Amino acid sequence: MNGNLFLRTAVLLLLVGVCFGIRMGLTQDFTYAPAHAHLNLVGGVLMFLAGLFYNGQSQVSARAMGVHYVVQLAGAILLPIGIVGSIARTAWAGPVVGAGALLTLLALLIFTWRVFRAPARTGVL
């Protein structure tokens, strides 16, 4: 495994997020803008950054990347779904948004740990 899976997933999630945003714009109903923003940021931007990072870090094991990927993807999907449910005041929203938020935090902690463990490179701007 390399960072390409992160990159490809990020682009797909951004595509969904942008379509969601276009729909909001066309209907002039921005009720779910927080879910749109979280999908783009957590699913798109953070996933893409991780993919770029992992493509530059060949020493990271496929298993370690896989764990990060699964946690990040689960959080990126559950968090916006939970936000939509919360805005719609559904009974299931609390646990879903909570799980999504905790998974997103865990994914960010994994990523932070990986970044700080990465070997320093000299001569790179």
Describe this protein with a few key phrases.
about 120 residues, mainly alpha, about 80% helix
Give a quick rundown of the structure:
Helix content is 78%, strand content 0%. It is mainly α and 125 residues long.
Give an overview of the whole structure.
By secondary structure, this protein is mainly α. The chain has one domain (4-117). The protein has four helices and no strands. It has helices spanning 4-27, 33-55, 62-87, 93-117. Helix 2 (33-55) packs antiparallel against helix 3 and helix 2 (33-55) packs parallel to helix 4. The longest helix has 26 residues, at 62-87. The radius of gyration is 16 Å and the shape is globular. It starts with a helix and ends in an 8-residue tail after the last helix.
The major sheet is characterized as: none
The value of Rg in angstroms is 16 Å
Number of strands: 0
Average pLDDT figure: 93
Task: Give the domain tally.
Answer: 1
**Gross morphology:** globular
Question: Unreliable stretches, pLDDT < 50, 5 or more residues?
Answer: none
Distance between the termini: 26 Å
Write the layout of secondary structure elements.
Layout: H1 4-27, H2 33-55, H3 62-87, H4 93-117
Helix pairs in contact: 1-2, 2-3, 2-4, 3-4
